[in-house]
Design brief:
The chain has 233 residues and is an all-alpha fold. Helices cover 79% and strands 0% of the residues. The protein is built from 11 helices and no strands. The longest helix is centred in the middle third of the chain and has 33 residues.
């Protein structure tokens, strides 16, 4: 546990000393702030549903920038071998990098919580969809970070890791649009792989165990594969 805490502090320090983290947060908050203000004045509805869907898309675009360096940079700088020979396990290494990245996403969502505060102060919003929307974004973010971490574990090139992650995210975003082209039961299988299909209920105020299980299972599977990728080095 002590080794994990040391690794986590190291990863947090490395992440928040990087300009990428602040650039991602700044772009995220500027775009979401502009969109929230514009939507509020145009629709006059105390709702964050549209904002959640836009955050969904922005997460797919920004998470690869956060995760691309996690293990690829270690391999490129030849510090991964030193880390693997230290008295820490592959699981601790992967989890430290995962939770450090998740802390950045959590901070971004926490700062965006000011939109919900504005709605509460100047309107009477339904808080259920707000709670479920943020829950869905955290689960969705966990799945994306896990996949991005795996991509970073498989290559020493950060750009390649980012492009692979982004390509997979975009494919799983639109894959349900092609499900109807396939015969049964493959149509249902392909549709159930869609990220948007499982996120949509959270954004509108519904929480289903199947959607929670999908994102948690995806995150755990990606972390397990990342550990295996490190163990083979």
């Amino acid at each position: 546990m002590r080794n994990f805490a040391v690794l986590l502090v190291k990863e947090e320090t490395a992440l928040f000393s990087s300009p990428i983290a602040y650039a991602v947060m700044t772009v995220f908050l500027l775009i979401m702030g502009y969109s929230f203000t514009l939507t509020l004045f145009l629709s006059h509805q105390p709702s964050l549903v549209h904002i959640f869907f836009q955050m969904f898309v922005l997460f797919m675009l920004t998470v690869p920038l956060i995760t691309m360096r996690l293990l690829a940079e270690e391999r490129k700088l030849r510090t991964l071998e030193v880390l693997l020979t230290a008295p820490v396990s592959e699981i601790e290494i992967v989890l430290a990098k995962f939770f450090a990245s998740m802390s950045l996403l959590a901070l971004m969502l926490l700062l965006s919580g000011s939109y919900a505060v504005v709605l509460v102060l100047f309107g009477d919003p339904d808080l259920g969809p707000i709670y479920s929307g943020y829950l869905g974004l955290m689960l969705f973010g966990a799945a994306l970070v896990g996949a991005g971490l795996l991509a970073s574990a498989l290559t020493a090139n950060q750009v390649v890791a980012a492009l692979v992650s982004l390509s997979v995210f975009l494919l799983l975003w639109i894959i349900d649009n092609f499900g109807w082209l396939l015969p049964s039961p493959f149509d249902a299988l392909v549709t159930n792989l869609s990220l948007s299909v499982h996120f949509r209920p959270f954004a509108v105020g519904s929480v289903y165990l199947s959607d929670v299980g999908f994102f948690l299972s995806a995150a755990l599977l990606m972390l397990l594969l990342s550990v295996r990728a490190l163990a083979r080095r």
